[in-house]
Specification:
Keywords: Membrane, Transmembrane, Transmembrane helix. The protein has 103 residues and is an all-alpha fold. It has three helices and no strands. It has one domain.
Length: 103
């Protein structure tokens, strides 16, 4: 029994990754910076994190619209990799800056 759509589950996992690990953490850090609950230098992390999340969203849309399953798989995996990079930059950088400044 073969799966007629081998990329189907990957598409939904990529959507969940972009939502829960890309958009929500970016919004959370942006709100922390806007309210002034973090050191000011955390705002600079958004300059690198937001373009990574936007790139992940673009790759996600391209992966959904790709006709070739192999191309779709490559685009969706790249999208999830960009989300992982944004997560490390935003959340890890926020934690490191808070530890360094004692905030």
């Amino acid at each position: 029994m073969t799966n007629p759509n081998p990329v189907g589950p990957l598409r939904w996992y990529a959507v969940l990754a972009v939502l829960f690990f890309g958009i929500l953490p970016t919004a959370m850090v942006a709100l922390l910076v806007a309210r002034g609950n973090t050191p000011g230098s955390v705002g600079w992390l958004l300059a690198g994190g937001v373009p990574l999340v936007i790139s992940a969203i673009i790759l996600l849309v391209r992966g959904f619209t790709a006709a070739d399953p192999e191309e779709a798989s490559i685009l969706l995996r790249r999208s999830m990799a960009f989300v992982a990079g944004a997560d490390v930059l935003l959340l890890g950088g926020n934690a490191l800056i808070r530890m360094a400044t004692g905030a």
